[in-house]
Design goal:
By secondary structure, the chain is an alpha+beta fold. It is about 35% helix and about 25% strand. The two termini are about 20 Å apart.
């Protein structure tokens, strides 16, 4: 069967690319290995789909080539995204810059994309995995995931929108990377990002389940590489929470390079070490007969108090009146700079996105066309661009998908 444009992947970028290409008058086929479209979109924003964000700064998008994402995003920005979705029926709800559909249902987003594609004549084939892309371009070989039957399709233009390899149960199993490399592209090594961190430090088990606001600084070989603030959560295996997800891509890369990594956690960001020392002194003097552990009640979660005392190498039963200045500064150090060794991240299964992917130097940002192969386009998470939490990864998928669809659909005519 012949089409003007074939799109591999009915995820965020592929669904938007299909609409953009069809609006140019092209015949479009979208192929997906899963049994329905947009499985990952359905999981976004806890099922509510945080589909973009009012705040767009350059550090929201990370890549070995940060200028690339900037160029693409300027062609189809937040305002165009909101307008695009509003025209399809998604009435936006904004919470501190984060946009969700007013329905608070990710399924609405998938539904409007499919309704618009169908109205434009886009065909969708599900439960078909693209195995291979061959010449004459483009011959696409697929295999049914149900009965293993093979099919051949032909198209003038091919858009690879197959995602990365994060959360593979939602469809993107890394086969997009194989298709891209078989067509001459190179990869920046894909690694888990927006992912929890593992620690060998024994105290994690003791504080497992404790949630608290903190400032977290990540270090690689003793050099600071990233810093974030927000609610952290200690777990059996290490540490989680939004600030941890945000810095995880830097640690993923540093660990992959064999560097020694650790976090320093500040549980009292509003007080300087001197102010904190003064506060602790005052408390200790006020109740001289309390044990140190009793004296810390009400400062932090009791499990955390215990760990702070232990990591300061102090005795929790020490009477407050016997604690001297150097012991107070040991407590201050642990409260402001608790060290947590990091020796890994959780796997791709737990990661929300991948960092790394197809080298963006091989792609033209104004069209998303490959510089290696004419009429081939690459979009979305498949490329070496990862956003921070907050709607940025979907924005990247919409922007790159729209650019590619428009270019592939138009150039065909
Ligand atoms: C739990 C979770 C929550 C998230 N929450 C948010 C959020 O709130 N906001 C945000 O901005 N981002 C969020 N993200 C990230 C965001 O969902 C992704 O970055 C985005 O969906 C990537 O879009 P994509 O089109 O590149 O790839 P995908 O959406 O992964 O789509 C790729 C599609 O290609 C198909 N495919 C892959 N290989 C083949 C093949 N060989 N043949 C046929 N089909 C193939 C897959 O089945 C899949 O449907 C979240 C991710 C996860 C996992």
């Amino acid at each position: 069967m012949e089409y003007d444009v074939i799109i591999v992947g009915a995820g965020a970028s592929g669904l938007v690319a299909a609409i953009a290409a069809a609006r140019q008058g092209s015949s479009v086929l979208v192929i997906d290995r899963k049994e329905k479209a947009g499985k990952k979109i359905l999981a976004t924003g806890n099922g509510k789909c945080n589909y973009t964000n009012r705040v767009q700064t350059t550090d929201c998008y990370r890549s070995d080539d940060s200028a690339f994402a900037r160029k693409v995003l300027s062609c189809f920005d937040v305002n165009q995204t909101l307008k695009f979705f509003e025209e399809l029926g998604i009435y936006p709800k904004e919470r501190e810059g984060y946009y969700y559909p007013n329905s608070e249902q990710a399924t609405s987003v998938v539904q409007v994309l499919i309704m618009e594609g169908t109205r434009l004549g886009v065909e969708y084939h599900y439960s078909e995995a693209v195995l291979e892309v061959m010449e004459p371009h483009y011959t696409i070989i697929t295999e049914s995931t149900e009965d293993k039957r093979r099919h051949n399709y032909h198209s003038e233009k091919l858009i690879l929108a197959a995602g990365g390899c994060a959360s593979p149960s939602l469809g993107s199993d890394g086969s997009g990377y194989q298709l891209a490399t078989s067509l001459g592209h190179s990869l920046i090594k894909p690694l888990p990002a927006l992912v929890q961190l593992k620690s060998p430090d024994k105290y994690c088990k003791t504080v497992s389940g404790v949630r608290t606001i903190a400032v977290v600084t990540a270090f690689a070989d003793q050099k600071p590489i990233a810093k974030e603030e927000g609610e952290i959560i200690f777990t059996d295996y290490g540490i989680s929470g939004i600030p941890i997800l945000q810095i995880s891509r830097f640690l993923s890369k540093a660990l992959d390079q064999g560097r020694n990594c650790h976090l320093e956690i500040d549980f009292m960001k509003d007080l300087t070490p001197d102010q904190l020392s003064e506060l602790l002194d005052k408390r200790l003097q006020h109740y001289p007969n309390q044990t140190l552990e009793e004296n810390m009640v009400g400062l932090f979660n009791h499990k955390l108090n215990y760990i702070i005392i232990k990591e300061a190498k102090l005795d929790p039963f020490l009477p407050s009146k016997r604690i001297n200045a150097s012991e107070v500064s040991k407590l201050v150090k642990q409260i402001k700079q608790l060290k947590l060794t990091i020796n890994g991240t959780n796997s791709f299964e737990n990661a929300q996105v991948c960092c790394g992917g197809v080298n963006t130097k091989e792609v033209e940002p104004s069209t998303m066309e490959s510089k290696k192969n004419k009429d081939l386009y690459l979009v979305g998470e498949l490329l070496d661009v990862d956003g921070t939490c907050g709607g940025y990864n979907l924005q990247w998928a919409w922007s790159s998908g729209y650019q590619a669809g428009t270019a592939a659909g138009k150039l065909n005519k």
